[in-house]
Design brief:
single chain; 538 residues; alpha/beta; Rossmann fold; 2 domains; 8-stranded mixed beta sheet; 4-stranded antiparallel beta sheet; 15% strand; elongated
């Protein structure tokens, strides 16, 4: 069983949500995990897990939690009490598979006065001071018994208390001994300074443990039983792996009625400054090989906390999701390919336009690019074309389906015409590179996607099937669907025609078929407009 402890010097970093999110993602992949809430002063995981099991807060009843478990074990027979760990855990089942369950061990019912009497009890607090070997043995037994739960968890994920002292020390030193710590920090000076102090403490503990192991091995080799006993009574606990997380980094700043989206350079400066302030570039920490992961703030979480990668259902498309998957790949490398398998539905997205001031399209980088035209300049033209053809066809046939098809076909041909010149250029000009070399079809299509992503239509991305001449063009931030209600006329037939003509030019054949359905359209609330293409002739 692999142990991963989540820790932060300051609260409010998104640490607890990230711990719960890791448990949910692993369970989604069919992996059984156990999640401990060891933040006894401010437990919250039962409320976060309500997104995966709605009745979770109610299931955490009086006496059901790690706090009462620990206090009663102090008073009673520890052997008898430690055999009942399953009684305080709550199952969060995966609705899509028999595997991949979460066994949740809550801190306790924080709405019950008895809980607060428990965590302020002197006997309870003394247990965390590790005054004797019995206290160390107690928590190690808890960890051992966790591994014997049914279903047996492959991971134990611990949400440790923030700050410094006995409570966070249990989660980050004893329980995470030879395991992994995820160290969260914000950008504020107090958070960075405190995190630096704890980071140096963890790194020093690693050095002390290496020295301790060396001394123990020497004592055993010499047959010095007295020294072996002394070293055994003075064990050193240290994490084996440390992952740093810079969390809740903002992506934009409001400036009046507009937004300034931070550039990569601006965000990079903040990241580098934080790394330097943490001492990651110092000679003492360089040999440790620390990595720092970025988790961007997600505005929708401020309105209602939820999992961007749910236990079941559609993965939310946002930079936070991408950051989570990068971090989780480092924490559980065995499942890196599975984490990456969630990424096809995700775009690392900074919008190529934002809609402000009655529909005006604005480039978020410099507030200018397409500041000259308004949203209705484009869409009203297409709407009028669509409506005129629809009405003409309907008056002739009295058939809504035929009228809709005729209007969509007209938009499709308009898109083909709009891409006529560029399609011809794409097949030659985009393909050519230096020294007479040429790009493959797939490379040319990717280059086109990158090129057109800067024009203002949205962000294009190509995903290819194994055959290479079929796949999907995914369009995020599609200007044709911006601010359009689901019931309004869909204008994506224009883009279908546009993409068709470009691909005809690249593949040098008219035998290209592109399909787009409302079920795969951002106008219907989907994360991207998906255009399925096939140039195989099949």
């Amino acid at each position: 069983m692999k142990v991963i402890a989540f820790y932060s010097f300051k609260g409010g970093t998104g640490r607890s949500l990230a711990a719960a999110q890791l448990a949910v993602v692993l369970a989604r992949l069919g992996v059984s995990v156990c999640l401990w809430d060891f933040d006894f002063q401010a437990p919250s995981l039962q409320y976060k897990l309500a997104n995966a099991r709605k009745d979770m807060p109610k299931r955490v009843s009086r006496g059901r939690g790690a706090a009462s478990y620990i206090l009663e074990a102090v008073k009673a027979s520890e052997k008898e009490k430690l055999s009942s760990l399953r009684q305080i855990s709550i199952l969060v089942p995966n609705p899509d598979t028999e595997n991949g369950n979460i066994l949740f061990v809550p801190a306790g019912d924080i709405e019950d006065r008895e809980y607060w009497a428990t965590v302020t009890n002197v006997s309870f607090q003394n247990r965390f001071r590790l005054a004797g070997e019995d206290d160390i043995e107690f928590f190690e037994k808890m960890k051992t018994l966790t591994g014997r739960l049914d279903p047996a968890p492959e991971f134990l994920i611990i949400d440790a208390r923030s700050g410094a002292g006995e409570f966070p020390g249990i989660g980050t030193r004893l329980l995470a001994d030879d395991e992994t710590i995820v160290l969260f920090t914000g950008t504020s000076p107090d958070s960075v300074v405190g995190t630096k102090g704890m980071l140096n403490t963890f790194v020093q503990a690693q050095k002390d443990k290496a020295e301790w192991i060396g001394n123990l091995e020497k004592a055993k080799a010499k047959g010095d039983e007295k020294e072996v006993v002394i070293l055994g009574e003075n064990r050193v606990f240290a994490p084996k792996h440390i992952s740093l997380v810079l969390s809740r980094l903002p992506q934009y700043q409001a400036q009046g009625s507009q937004f300034h989206w931070y550039t990569d350079d601006e965000l990079g400066r903040v990241t580098r400054r934080t790394a330097e302030d943490l001492g990651m570039t110092s000679p003492a920490l360089l040999p440790v090989g620390l990595k720092m992961f970025i988790l961007y703030s997600e505005p929708s979480l401020l309105m209602e906390e939820h999992f961007v990668i749910p236990l079941s259902g559609e993965v939310e498309q946002c930079p936070l999701t991408v950051g989570y998957l990068s971090l989780f790949s480092d924490l559980a490398p065995k499942y890196e390919a599975d984490f990456l398998g969630l990424k096809p539905a995700i775009e690392e997205l900074r919008p190529y336009f934002v809609v402000v001031d009655e529909g005006r399209l604005v480039n978020p980088e410099d507030q200018s690019w397409n500041v000259a035209f308004r949203r209705d300049t484009i869409t009203s033209t297409f709407d009028r074309l669509y409506q005129e053809i629809y009405e003409r066809e309907y008056s002739r046939t009295k058939d809504k389906k035929l009228a809709t098809k005729a209007a969509a076909d007209a938009l499709f041909e308009t898109g083909v015409s709009a891409a006529e010149e560029f399609g011809s250029y794409a097949g030659t000009g985009l393909r050519e590179v230096a020294d007479g070399q040429t790009l493959s079809d797939e490379e040319t299509i990717r280059k086109w996607c990158e090129f057109d992503s800067r024009v203002g239509f949205g962000k294009f991305r190509a995903v290819f099937d194994a055959k290479g001449r079929s796949g999907e063009i995914r369009l995020v931030n599609n200007f044709l669907t911006a601010n359009r209600a689901p019931e309004e006329a869909n204008l994506c037939s224009f883009m279908t025609g546009y993409i068709t003509r470009v691909l005809q030019g690249i593949y040098d054949t008219e035998n290209v078929k592109v399909e787009h359905s409302p079920e795969n359209c951002s106008q219907q609330g989907k994360p991207a407009c998906v255009f399925r293409f096939n140039a195989t002739g099949e």
